[in-house]
Hints:
By secondary structure, the protein is mainly α. The protein is built from 3 helices and no strands. The chain has helices at residues 32-37, 43-69, 93-98. It is elongated and about 50 Å long. It starts with 31 loop residues before the first helix and ends in a 9-residue tail after the last helix.
Amino acid sequence: MEQIELFAIESPCRGICVNxxxxxxxxxxxxxxxxxxxxSLSNEARFIILERCKQxxxxxxxxxxxxxxxxxxxxxxxxxxxxxxxxxxxxxxxEAELFELTQESFY
Length: 107
């Protein structure tokens, strides 16, 4: 037996509304068409879009984790060069951890 949705699925918009290089919103990860057609879609279609957004987010998180785990210049954002900051040889462990990249979610 199919589950009946009693309430409309609300928009996942976070108010950021900036397109990425691949054409997806950086806030909610929907495509332009998915955003424009949201209010005319059925709940089933909205649910499918939300599942796609979850998959896109998982791919982004995996790619980010891979970049953080790489120990090369490719791990740095475009245009940044690896440089020595201060006297890293004489740093205490607490100072070394201060600038350590984390793998926390950006949401």
